[in-house]
Amino acid sequence: MKKILLKNERVSAYVQILLGCLVGAAAYPLFLVPNHIAPGGLTGLATVLNYLFHWPVGTTSLLMNIPLFIIGYRAMGRVFVIRSLVATVLFSVLIDLIPL
C-alpha cells in the first residue's frame, strides 16, 4: 500500500510539473516575446538575447541553466535536480514548440 501511495505522489508531482510548464511556456510565444517583455531570471535574459540575436528563447534558457544544475546537484541532491531538470527541459522545449 505504501508503494502505491509513493507512486501516486510521484505521478501527481510530474503531472503538476507538466501543467505548470505548459501554462508558463505558453506565455512566452503568445504574450511576452511578441510584446518585447523580458521577465526576470535566465529566461528573461534569453528573451533579451532573442531580441538581439534571434536565438530561440527556450534553447538559450536551457543552455544557461546547465551550470545551475551542476551547483544544484551538489547542494540539493539528486531528486531535486531530476525534477528541476524535467521541468526546465519541458519548459524550454514547450517555449520553442508553441508557435508565435
Structure description:
The structure is a single chain. The chain is 84% helix and 0% strand. It contains 4 helices and no strands. The longest helix is centred in the first third of the chain and has 31 residues, at 2-32. The radius of gyration is 15 Å and the shape is flat.
Distance between the termini: 46 Å
Measured as a percent range, the helix fraction is over 70%
Mean pLDDT: 91
Unreliable sequence segments:
none
DSSP strand (E) fraction? under 5%
- What's the story with the biggest beta sheet? none
| Topology order in helix (H) and strand (E) letters | HHHH
What structural class is derived from the secondary structure elements? mainly alpha
Overall shape: flat
- Treating each run of at least 4 consecutive H or I residues as one helix, how many helices? 4
Topology:
Elements: H1 2-32, H2 41-53, H3 57-76, H4 78-97
Quickly list its features:
single chain, 100 residues, mainly alpha, 84% helix
Give the gist of this structure.
It contains 4 helices and no strands. It is an all-alpha fold and 100 residues long.
